[in-house]
Design a protein that fits this description.
Helix 8 (about 305-315) crosses helix 10. The protein contains ten helices and 18 strands. It is α/β, with parallel strands linked by helices and about 400 residues long. The strands form three sheets. It has a seven-stranded mixed sheet with strand order 14-13-15-16-12-17-18, sandwiched between helices.
């Protein structure tokens, strides 16, 4: 089965007409995208968009053989002109299946937002799932479907759609996840590719033809990632974004509740509201047992507070205790942690503060903490496949 992506953009296209934003201003050449429309084996067209016939011609294909046109989402604005010889667009009711004379079968998949998803099975049994913009499948049950060969979805705006599909086995290790309905939410080019890779997805230019079932270099999610950044840099948002497309994440909060501190409680509440409802949270600084266990991906936020707890435990703030064995005990704890990171089989995303680039702390204890956090970050980063520094909300990949 072959899929030709006549367009890969949002319904309004990219750049959006008359939009002055930075993403639209830089969406040129191969980063410019027409509204998403997919031609399946030159016989089935998913979403009819303006200029579809010309887009097909530019990619070396034709709409002359199209026998069925299906719409996935409500189309705003004036009706799209139907090219001569192309059937009138229609929509399959949720849960119903349509059989084409060409041997293709199309089942309508219910969404949690306006629109319809389509599961297409080719004559050779290959399976493709196409989701509408802003939509995620509703009512999925574990084991109800096998893994699709290709999934075309709005990955940027609905990473939870991938999480749901992964949870029930509809997206597996070999599924080629391709982002469509791409809008101006993320700067095009390198930043879009980086964000999608973190979710195990990719983007392709308009006009690309995908051979379903042929091996593609699907991005591998790094096993271990360290996200560094200063205060309010966006490092926690970056870390959370990396696991939004995965179900059953265990969020490890190392800061505790700090009873009576209303400002801290407000920070914690903000973090919790941002996280998907399917994530679980545990408050602990005992990270080694979690790293040694198998299970869901871990998001550790953050190592800075883990270090504070460890330094409290070894008496690092008292010079005599520090010199009398506290420093040696802290080194042992850091070594135990990094060895557990090296051996872990879980996906881990850890957050830490990048320190030492500003004013030298005025106190000996402040300088000691700064130095030890620098050492911890270095040791932890050495065990990670990817290290990212976040500055003003922009992620700079240092490794991986």
């Amino acid at each position: 089965m072959e899929l030709t992506l006549l367009g890969t953009g949002a319904p309004a296209g990219l750049p959006r007409p008359s939009c002055p934003c930075a993403a639209c201003a830089t969406a040129v050449a191969t980063d410019a995208r027409a509204a998403t429309s997919v031609l399946v084996d030159e016989t089935l067209l998913l979403d009819l968009t303006p200029g579809a016939a010309f887009a097909a011609a530019r990619s070396g294909h034709s709409l002359a053989g199209v026998r069925q046109v299906l719409l996935s989402h409500p189309h705003d604005g004036p009706p799209v002109e139907v090219p001569a010889g192309v059937p009138q667009p229609g929509r399959v009711p949720d849960g119903r299946e349509l059989a084409l004379l060409t041997g293709h079968r199309v089942r309508a998949v219910a969404m949690d937002a306006p629109g319809t998803g389509y599961a297409v099975t080719g004559p050779d049994g290959q399976r493709v799932l196409y989701l509408p913009p802003g939509g995620a499948p509703a009512g999925l049950e574990e084991g109800a479907v096998e893994a699709y060969d290709v999934v075309l979805a709005d990955v940027v705006r609905r990473p939870d759609a991938l999480a749901r599909l992964r949870a029930v086995g509809a997206v597996g290790p070999t599924t080629d996840v391709v982002a469509v309905h791409v809008d101006h939410d993320v700067p095009p080019g390198a930043e879009l590719r980086r964000r999608l890779a973190a979710a195990g997805a990719r983007a392709v230019p308009d006009g690309t033809t995908l051979a379903v079932g042929v091996y593609e270099d699907v991005p591998d999610v790094p096993r271990r990632t360290l996200v560094l950044g200063g205060a309010r840099s966006g490092k926690s948002v970056e870390a959370e974004r990396r696991l939004e497309a995965f179900p059953e994440v265990l969020y490890v909060a190392t800061g505790g509740s700090r009873n009576g501190d209303t400002e801290w409680a407000s920070r914690v509440a903000t973090h919790r509201e941002r996280r998907p409802g399917s994530w679980r949270t545990t408050e602990t600084c005992d990270l080694v047992p979690l790293l040694k266990d198998d299970g869901a991906p871990l998001l550790i936020d953050c190592l800075s507070l883990w270090l504070t707890d460890a330094m409290d435990a070894v008496g690092a703030w008292d010079d005599a205790e520090w010199a009398g064995g506290g420093e040696r005990e802290l080194r042992s704890r850091v070594r135990e942690l990094t060895e557990a990171v090296r051996a872990t089989r879980r996906t881990v995303v850890a957050v830490s503060n990048e320190v030492g680039s500003g004013i030298v702390p005025a106190t000996a204890s402040g300088r000691r903490y700064r130095d030890e956090l620098g050492r911890l970050n270095t040791a932890f980063a050495n065990e990670c496949e990817q290290v990212v520094l976040v500055v003003a909300g922009q992620a700079l990949v240092l490794r991986g």
